C-alpha cells in the first residue's frame, strides 16, 4: 500500500518492474524513463506533486460519495505524458526536490525564514525524504524536530486550500485572526474573516472535519510532512 503522506513518482520504478513484460518499449530494448510514466483516475491525470492522500481526498469530495471507494483504482500510462495538465516530471529526483521546496516555503511561512532548511546537509535532506517514502515516522520526527522547536501558539500556519481541479491556494494563516476552519475558509473565499457562509464537505487526511475546529489544533495533528495543512473543500455556499 502507498501511504497518504507519500507521492506517486516515488513508486515509479516498482510500477515499471511490475509491468515490464507488458511495455512494448522495454521489449524493444529501450529503457523506460520515469518521465514517461503517469497515472490517472477515471480518465483524469493525477498531479504527481500532490501527496497521495490529497489526491484521494480531492476525488472523494468531488464525487459526493458518503464513503470513499477502496481500494482506489488508478490507471498507469507509459507514453503521451499530459504536459498541459500535469507538471513535467524530469526524473525521480524531481519529486524529492519539489518536496524540499515545499518544506522551505512552509518553514518560511511559519518562521519568516527558511535558514533551518538551508543549513541542512544534502545527506540530512535525503534522509528526511527517505523517511517519508519508507513511512518511518520516528526518523522523520527526529529530522524535523529543530524546525518546530520555535513554534508557538501564535505562529503563522501554512495552508493549501484545494477546490476541485483548480490549482491550490496557498495561505499564511494567522491563528488570532482566523481561529477556526470556518473563519479561514470564508476569509479565503470572500476576502472576509466573518462567519458568513456555510462550508460543505471539508476533508483533511480522509476525515470529514467540522469547521468549528481551531486551525492551530488541526495543523498540529494533520499537517503533511512538507509542513503544509492541505484542506480539500467540496463546495462553498453563501447564506
UniProtKB/TrEMBL annotation:
Please report a single Pfam family linked to this protein. ATG5_UblB
Chain ranges of the Autophagy protein ATG5 alpha-helical bundle region domain: 92-147
One Gene Ontology term of the biological-process aspect is:
autophagy of mitochondrion
Q: Which residues form the Autophagy protein ATG5 UblA domain?
A: 1-78
Q: What keywords tag this UniProt record?
A: Autophagy, Isopeptide bond, Membrane, Ubl conjugation
Say which family it is in.
Belongs to the ATG5 family.
The annotated subunit structure for this chain is: Conjugated with ATG12.
Under which name does UniProt file this protein?
Autophagy protein 5
Amino acid at each position: 500500500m502507498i501511504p497518504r503522506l507519500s507521492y506517486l513518482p516515488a513508486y515509479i520504478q516498482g510500477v515499471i518492474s511490475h509491468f515490464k513484460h507488458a511495455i512494448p518499449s522495454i521489449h524493444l530494448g529501450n529503457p523506460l524513463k520515469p518521465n514517461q510514466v503517469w497515472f490517472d483516475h477515471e480518465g483524469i491525470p493525477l498531479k504527481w506533486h500532490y501527496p497521495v492522500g490529497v489526491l484521494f481526498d480531492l476525488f472523494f469530495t468531488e464525487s459526493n460519495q458518503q464513503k470513499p471507494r477502496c481500494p482506489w483504482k488508478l490507471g498507469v500510462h507509459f507514453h503521451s505524458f499530459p504536459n498541459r495538465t500535469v507538471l513535467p516530471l524530469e526524473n525521480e529526483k524531481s519529486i524529492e526536490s519539489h518536496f524540499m521546496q515545499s518544506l522551505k516555503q512552509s518553514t518560511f511561512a511559519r518562521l519568516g525564514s527558511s535558514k533551518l532548511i538551508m543549513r541542512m546537509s544534502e545527506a540530512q535532506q535525503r534522509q528526511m525524504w527517505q523517511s517519508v517514502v519508507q513511512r518511518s515516522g520516528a526518523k522523520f520526527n527526529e529530522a524535523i524536530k529543530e524546525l518546530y522547536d520555535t513554534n508557538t501558539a501564535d505562529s503563522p500556519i501554512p495552508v493549501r486550500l484545494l477546490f476541485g481541479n483548480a490549482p491550490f491556494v496557498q495561505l499564511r494563516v494567522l491563528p488570532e485572526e482566523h481561529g477556526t476552519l470556518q473563519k479561514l475558509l470564508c476569509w479565503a473565499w470572500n476576502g472576509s474573516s466573518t462567519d458568513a457562509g456555510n462550508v460543505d464537505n471539508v476533508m483533511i487526511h480522509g476525515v470529514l472535519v467540522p469547521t468549528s475546529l481551531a486551525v492551530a489544533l488541526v495543523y498540529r495533528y494533520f499537517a503533511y510532512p512538507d509542513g503544509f495543512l492541505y484542506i480539500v473543500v467540496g463546495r462553498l455556499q453563501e447564506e
